[in-house]
Each structure stands twice: as structure tokens, then as C-alpha cells.
Amino acid sequence: MNKQELIKRRFEITERLRAIADDMDAKKREMTEEEKTEVQALHREMSAIDLRIQSETSVQPAMSQKSREVRFDEILREAKKGGNNKEFVIQREAVVTSDTNIDATFPVTVEALMEPLEEGLILDKLGIPTRTGLRGTFVIPGIGAIEATVAGEAVEISDSTIDWEKLVPKPQRLSVSASISNQAINASDGTAYRAVVDQLRVAIQRTLNSRMFTTKQSGTGDFYGPFKALAAAAAVPASSIRTIAQKKAAKHILFAGEVPTYKEIQLLRTIPTTKGVRYLFGAYIMDAAMAGELRATPKGAGGGRMILEDGYIDGMPVFETNYLELGTNKSYIAFGFFGYEALGQFGEMRMIIDPYTLASKDCVKVVLNADWAMTTLRPEAFCLGECAGGGSGSGSGN
Q1: One digit per residue, pLDDT tens: the chain, 398 residues?
Q2: Cβ(93)–Cβ(111) under 8 Å?
Q3: 306: how many CB neighbours lie within 10 A of its CB?
Q4: In Å, what is the CA distance from 369 to each residue of 128, 133, 168, 303, 330?
Q5: CB-count exposure of residue 289 (10 Å: 0-12, 13-18, 19+)
Q6: Statement: the pTM of the whole predicted model exceeds 0.85
Q7: Nearest Cα residue to 365 out of 346, 351, 375, 378
């Protein structure tokens, strides 16, 4: 098959896999043996197709940034002029489209959308493992607490176990959109590309950050970081936690005042380590108002050192976001080892250029759909602290 035929066949495989998944969701059923065999065969065929496409694509010169911008402008004009929706599938190496009558070289890549996210709160600062283009049931291996057993010679010991079922992500569809006026398209010289990619990048970043740190259920689905579950757990007064057993049982602690003491802040950090969690990208999370309070709160009576200095509390970084308390009147401080929170994007990113929906506003709408999953690999690696008497209220953040 030539490249266009490979692209068409790949799209057919994707649609078949999506149809099987939709039917399983609708009927709340497991995959049949026949479907398992079919899915395995389709994945093998798709891998072979990807290799062929990649081998043909790799010999072609990469598009320059200017070429990407110009080509994207052309695609927008074609969609507007033709009056048809254009759907594209964005991959890491090759980009394909369901419309085989137009050039399959699409200028927006996964890198173009994901690279700017590294400047955001999640990816570069917290060390959260992030992967794109995942397929099937993805399990993150190699992270868990395994204890050694001290035994005499020739004494049989039992294996430590890890509940791998908890490590299986459940992808949820994340849909974001951007719009651009027809006047801007007509007059653009690369500006359309920059405007749309920037809008989509900010929308993705905002959604991922809000779902990572929110403490409340929002809509349907199961796309949350570790703190929603911790907020739902019973709050235990920090003053009552004294023994190792109490620290191991604690998930959600209640500070005595509106601003925690240095001792309470240390307890928030101690609880995960008491549970045997290895240090892996530890950080405190709080809103800007609480960070300001801790910068002005001494560690002890008459002391000259503040709890929070130069963005750190005793060597652990502090990051500010109001998403931790989104939609509540409570003030939270969280601590976690974020290497135990995985973020993954599954399958292809699908982009639709739609000239109809916003026609009354003389705009073209660009919609990006992708399947994402957040998976807390070790819930005991995180702890949530709640301040008494409320705090700075709800808001939006980074």
C-alpha cells in the first residue's frame, strides 16, 4: 500500500477499536474472546502501519516553523471555503487525516501542543511522569513498597504483593476548543497557527492543573489527582496525632488555626514518610494567600526564621495554585511525592476544524479531543491539611 492507503487503513482500524470500546461502555460488559483476538490483531497491524509510515516520513525534510504556520493557514482557508469539517489525527511522528483528498501533512504536532505545557505547574516542576500516545491498558510498573523478610536458613518466606489493579489508568476524554475569526484567517500570515495553538495549549494546561489539584467532584468521570479522595476522608485534628500508628492511618488532618504552625507543617510532610514512601519529587501545594501568611509566620516564638523562605519549607519546594480549593470556602495545604502521580495521554489526539458552529460569529472553531488519565500510584504518598475557620475562599489559579 502507498502512504495514503496506509493512512486510510489506520483510520479504519482506529474507528473499529473505538466502536468496540463504545459498545463495551454502553453495555457495561467485558471484552469477548473474539474481540480480544481481533483487538490484538488490529494492534499488530497498526504497529506495522506506523513503522511503514514512519519510514516514509523520516526521509522527508522536517517542516520549518514558517512552513507549519503557512500550511495551517491554508488548511483553515480550505475548511472555510469548502464549508466542510476537517478531522485530523495528531500523532508523535506521523499525522494522518480522515480526508484522503487533501494533503495528509498536517502542521500541528503533539510536540507543538505538549512542549509549552512543560512551562506549567505540572510537568517540569513536580516531576509527574507524563507519557503521550499510549495504547490499550497501560500499567505503570516498578513502583511499590516491597519489604524484605528476615528469616533463618531454609525458612520459607512469603512474597510481598502489589495491587497492580490500582495502577491501571482509566482514560477520560478531554475536549478543548479555540476559535479564530474569518477576518483573521484571511489576513493571517502564520498568526492563525500561533493563536490557535496558544489557545489550545492554555486550555489543556488549565484543565490538567485544575483536575490535578481540585478537592471537589466536578461533573462526571474519574479524572482527578490525589486530593479529591483525601478531602473526602475524615479530618483528624493534628494535635491528636502522636503515635506512629496514628500517623500511618492519617490522610486528612485538621490544623488548630487559620494558619498552621511549623510543627503542623512538619506533620503534613512526616505522614507520607512514616508510611514507607520513598522521597520522589516532594512538594507543598497551597494558594497564594496561604503562602503569604507562611512567609510572615516565624517557625517559633521570637525566632527570626520564617516557615516559608525563598520558595522552600526546610528544603521542600512550595508551589502556589488556587485550584487546590476550587469551589470551596476552605483553605488547604497539601504535601505529596508527585513522582507517584502519573499522567498519560492515550491514543491519538483528534483535531476537528469546524466552519459551521460559530458561523453566526463569522468564526472557525478548532476542537481538540484526546483521552487522558491521572493515576495515583501510591495514595499514601500524599497528605492534605485543612485550616480551621475557612481561609481565602475559592478562586482560580495556575
Answers
A1: 776 677 778 778 877 887 887 788 778 888 898 988 998 888 888 888 877 766 654 444 455 666 777 778 788 887 777 667 777 777 554 444 444 444 445 667 666 676 656 556 666 677 776 777 666 554 454 444 444 444 444 444 333 334 544 556 678 888 888 888 887 777 766 677 777 888 888 888 888 888 888 888 776 667 888 999 999 898 899 999 989 999 999 999 999 988 999 999 999 999 999 988 888 788 999 988 899 999 999 988 776 789 999 989 988 899 988 788 754 556 889 999 988 888 888 877 888 888 888 888 888 888 888 888 888 888 899 999 998 764 443 334 45
A2: no
A3: 15
A4: 22, 13, 21, 53, 33
A5: middle
A6: no
A7: 351
Q: Which residue shows C-alpha cell 475536549? A: 175
C-alpha cell of residue 249? 492511618
